[in-house]
Write a structure and sequence with these properties.
Layout (H helix, E strand, L loop, with lengths): L1 H24 L2 H36 L4 H9 L5
Length: about 80
């Protein structure tokens, strides 16, 4: 988690630097690049939180696989192993 958080912080810092340079030099392309980098950082953070919830659910189901629903779900997802 710390690696992903560090990457997101670095992407945010880079986006702010790009936007600051774009504002000083009145360049639209750098402003667009800064916006895209900031969007990528947000997307990375969103994907991390979504995947962490899904993986937490799968590990919970694997530990408590007494119900038939859990066994069916885990057998459908056996290709992940």
């Amino acid at each position: 988690m710390l690696i992903i958080l560090a990457i997101v912080v670095l992407l945010g810092f880079w986006a702010l630097r790009l936007m600051e340079q774009a504002f000083q030099r009145q360049e639209f392309s750098r402003m667009l690049a800064g916006t895209l980098v900031a969007t990528a950082a947000g997307g990375l953070l969103t994907c991390y939180f979504l995947m962490s919830d899904i993986l937490r659910l799968l590990f919970y189901l694997q530990a408590h696989s007494s119900s038939s629903y859990a066994q069916d779900l885990l057998s459908d997802l056996s290709w992940l192993d």
